[in-house]
Design a protein that fits this description.
195 residues, mainly alpha, Homeodomain-like_sf, transcription regulation, DNA-binding transcription factor activity, transcription cis-regulatory region binding, TetR family transcriptional regulator
Amino acid sequence: MVSTDSGSGSSARRKRADARRNEETLLDAAAAAFVASGVDVPVRDIAARAGVGIGTIYRHFPTRADLIVAVYRHQVEACAEAGPALLASSSTPHAALVRWIDLFVDFLVTKHGLAEALQSDDAAFETLHAYFIDRLVPVCAQLLDAAAAAGEIRPDMDAYELLRGVGNLCIGADDNPRYDARRLVGLLTEGLRLR
């Protein structure tokens, strides 16, 4: 007996992989649009960046809140996944930490307008801060622990405290073109080093 559905499993997996890639492309386009124009950017602009129709966006994300939450989670996941990869590929744990903090700053910058949305009464946003903490603090702690174990940084740095400090340095970067948050964050990470 010959099976008539040979390959249907691989076809379904390929379709799922394509759908994931398409969704990631859409989320990356939305994030870029948020950076450029804030979270209130017209959906048609996001669709144009992603190379899809507006209907495709609404099919995946029926409301703006759904899209904002998905972009936020996508970026948190990308930042979380980058930590171990940087630790494995960087010349030193401190170099990995610095590169990861730089990605974290990029993430904070892409939250342009998101803070205001997160303060709204929309229930979709309620769990995002806890999700952010749960995913990123352990990654930062892993990088700090590796750098401390290598004797590169002070051993008493708390991951939550560091992320909070970096976040505070990034506040106001949008409002003042003379304010260089990235330079100040660089001074902070350099200050962690043992002399």
